[in-house]
Design brief:
membrane, mainly alpha, 274 residues, 13 helices, ABC-2 family transporter protein, transmembrane
């Protein structure tokens, strides 16, 4: 049982797809640092002491890629989050079945052990593939932008009195960021494992890859037409946008886990792969 977990984790994190995903994600992150972080540093340097005490610089928690919704790199990153989560290892069950590798596994390991190990490996690979670029961007931004407390009076962010954990954003931004990174990790894991469930219903690998992305964009489009963007995780996962509804967050998580963990395990136990 332990061996199958080790094997799946190794396959997930040592594969070429995982490395390519990190390169893409970190590339987007570094583009943002170059386009926004460095120019802001130069701007602060140009002020010198002329406006000392008369102006409040934008903080790193507001300028980094997840600090607002108006930087193009951040929007692109959160929009393609399902693709970044699935690409490392989300399609692996489909490939194991089509390639016959799963028969070798089932001849040596219990089916339930393999399914649990597969789910865990896909979940972790998807979550880390998304979180690492965000951390790279945060640390890169800190190199050029002061880590000051955000100023609510300046309205340089979208955090309002309705936002969850709003007091942490203005007083303990590190804790606030940690909460959102944890949530982003979970959502990335859900999208990655959603591809596992889709594998039972499609003969095309491209559909397995892209289905979670189209689900997210479908939700985004509907919420945009309704004028309720706060219901879309393209926005509410952005720390600088914030979450205004516990119910929406809980609904996404409950439905997500039902469509991934439960569905994958139930269908995997019943599937005839011989």
């Amino acid at each position: 049982m332990k061996k199958v977990y080790q094997m799946e984790i190794k396959r997930a994190f040592q594969g070429l797809s995982y490395r390519i995903t990190l390169l893409i994600g970190c590339g987007i992150s570094l583009c943002h640092v170059i386009r926004c972080g460095i120019p802001h540093y130069r701007y602060l340097r140009s002020l010198g002491g002329v406006y000392k005490g008369l102006t409040h610089p934008v903080s790193a928690s507001e300028l980094w890629m997840g600090g607002n919704t108006y930087n193009i790199e951040g929007f692109v990153f959160y929009a393609i989050l399902p693709l970044l989560a699935v690409f490392p290892y989300g399609q692996s069950y489909y490939e194991d079945v089509k390639g016959g590798f799963i028969r070798q596994i089932y001849s040596r390991e219990q089916r339930s052990s393999y399914l649990k190990a597969k789910y865990l490996a896909v979940f972790l690979s998807g979550g880390t593939a998304v979180i690492i670029p965000l951390l790279v961007n945060w640390l890169g931004t800190l190199l050029f932008v002061p880590n000051l407390l955000a100023e609510s009076a300046l309205q340089s962010n979208n955090i309002t009195y309705e936002s969850l954990w709003k007091h942490l954003f203005f007083t303990k931004p590190g804790i606030y960021l940690g909460i959102f990174l944890a949530l982003t990790f979970v959502f990335a894991g859900i999208y990655a494992t959603m591809a596992l469930s889709v594998s039972f219903f499609s003969e095309w690998k491209i559909f397995v890859y892209t289905f979670p992305f189209f689900i997210q964009m479908g939700i985004y489009t509907i919420t945009m037409l309704m004028g309720k963007l706060e219901f879309s995780n393209v926005y509410f996962l952005v720390p600088g946008f914030g979450i205004t509804s516990v119910g929406v967050l809980a609904g996404h998580l409950i439905i997500g886990f039902c469509l991934t963990a439960l569905l994958f395990y139930i269908l995997g136990k019943k599937e005839d792969i011989l």
